[in-house]
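A.,

Following up on our hallway conversation. Structure tokens first:
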């Protein structure tokens, strides 16, 4: 929502909040689904039927175009690249520290910025144009939603990061409705045994056909529904879920409670890769969205079946064409092709370690995805949430010199808004250790869950 609406949103009644969300949804729908959106969708659907050789030729042509454009228009790459030369890896730290240098010169003045930490507690600022946004969404419409047999234009739900229910101690309903997009938006911050019946009532009231959002939040809700003997009164068409790994157990529980098949979607806030689950249950990378490599410590490709670091090159971004960008994930290519027959879309066997620990609040609610802590905090380099007890958390921060009392106060307010009254200890550290696989753990919980 716009800043003016956001300022008054927490203080108006639910019907007015629904109206505000709907006005935002109307503008957002035009931005994402307007212009040449349908033509972009048609292009992705056509390439669904291409041979492997034809896709490789197309991607090679697009890659040359992107590199040429980066050298000509993007200050960061003008300094680092030469057309036809080797392409070095772009570290996430460079995007974080030199963000303005990644914006193409011919796009300045018509870009928007999205601030996010992704899943790793490392804040980045992503630039995109309206056309970029439509291309990103067109790929999801054709692959993520299309393969699941539905569409973003159908009535849908979301359990995501927007704080649609303002207070950490709010009362039901724990959802709001966006009339413009036929979207019911559930709070990811109030999923608790005491609140489950209200979530179920929201689903049954609006009957969304497509369920979207955080995979683990849907699983937490479904698990609590099973414990209380609750299911939905209707059968949605599909659930396309992202942000965390979707395990077989999570799929089973979601089907039992929410009466729907869950499809996994793997992407990045930087919009440099998209992988989507097909009807055969395999996770296909879309190389016409972004070129994905899995490499070793020296930056060399690893064979199928071997873990490696994920680097990706964005093919759809006019505003910020990231090249061989290291997103911070570890993955494995599959050894066999998928029986669905899409040999032109390579298969990931696994994206390693995409399950975060769950934080349990004092009132029993369970939360994942703490990236909101670091939104729009330019002096935070990295952050990690450690839960010591249900009412006590430690936030480890790697900060820049400018970090001060105002930013610390903002962080404390965010925790209070989402978790209610908890004790928060903020520690400034020089670095946050990685696991033996080199993975960053954004959330560590020492609390036993039910």
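Then the amino acids I'd put at each of the 450 positions:
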């Amino acid at each position: 929502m716009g800043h003016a609406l956001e300022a008054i949103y927490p203080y108006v009644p639910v019907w007015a909040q629904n109206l505000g969300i709907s006005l935002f949804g109307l503008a957002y729908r035009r931005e994402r689904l307007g212009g040449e959106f349908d033509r972009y969708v048609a292009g992705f659907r056509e390439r669904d039927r291409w041979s492997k050789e034809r896709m490789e030729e197309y991607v090679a042509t697009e890659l040359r175009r992107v590199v040429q454009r980066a050298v000509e228009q993007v200050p960061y790459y003008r300094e680092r690249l030469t057309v036809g030369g080797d392409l070095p890896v772009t570290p996430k730290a460079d995007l974080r520290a030199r963000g303005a240098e990644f914006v193409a010169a011919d796009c300045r003045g018509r870009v928007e910025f999205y601030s996010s930490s992704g899943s790793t507690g490392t804040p980045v600022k992503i630039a995109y144009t309206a056309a970029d946004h439509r291309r990103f969404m067109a790929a999801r419409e054709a692959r993520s939603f299309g393969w699941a047999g539905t569409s973003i234009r159908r009535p849908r739900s979301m359990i995501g990061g927007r704080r649609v229910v303002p207070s950490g101690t709010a009362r039901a309903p724990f959802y709001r409705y966006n009339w413009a997009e036929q979207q019911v938006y559930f709070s990811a911050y109030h999923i608790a045994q005491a609140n489950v019946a209200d979530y179920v009532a929201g689903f049954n009231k609006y009957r969304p056909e497509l369920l979207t959002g955080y995979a683990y939040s849907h699983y937490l809700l479904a698990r609590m529904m099973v414990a209380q003997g609750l299911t939905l009164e209707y059968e949605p068409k599909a659930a396309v879920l992202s942000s965390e790994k979707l395990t077989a157990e999570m799929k089973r529980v979601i089907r039992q409670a929410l009466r729907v098949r869950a499809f996994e979607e793997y992407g990045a806030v930087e919009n440099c890769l998209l992988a989507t689950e097909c009807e055969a249950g395999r996770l296909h990378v879309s190389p016409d969205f972004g070129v994905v490599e899995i490499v070793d410590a020296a930056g060399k490709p690893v064979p199928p079946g071997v873990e490696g670091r994920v680097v990706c090159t964005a093919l759809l971004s006019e505003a910020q064409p990231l090249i061989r960008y290291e997103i911070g994930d570890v993955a494995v290519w599959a050894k066999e092709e998928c029986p669905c027959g899409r040999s032109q879309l390579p298969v990931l066997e696994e994206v390693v370690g995409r399950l975060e620990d769950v934080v349990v609040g004092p009132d029993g609610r369970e939360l994942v995805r703490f990236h909101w802590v670091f939104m729009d905090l330019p002096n935070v380099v990295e952050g990690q949430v450690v839960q010591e007890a249900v009412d006590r958390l430690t936030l480890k921060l790697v900060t820049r010199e400018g970090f001060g009392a105002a930013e610390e106060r903002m962080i404390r307010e965010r925790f209070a808004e989402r978790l209610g009254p908890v004790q928060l200890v903020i520690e400034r550290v020089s670095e946050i250790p990685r696991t033996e696989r080199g993975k960053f753990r954004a959330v560590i919980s020492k609390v036993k869950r039910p």
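The longest strand covers residues 380-389. Curious whether your intuition agrees with the design.

B.
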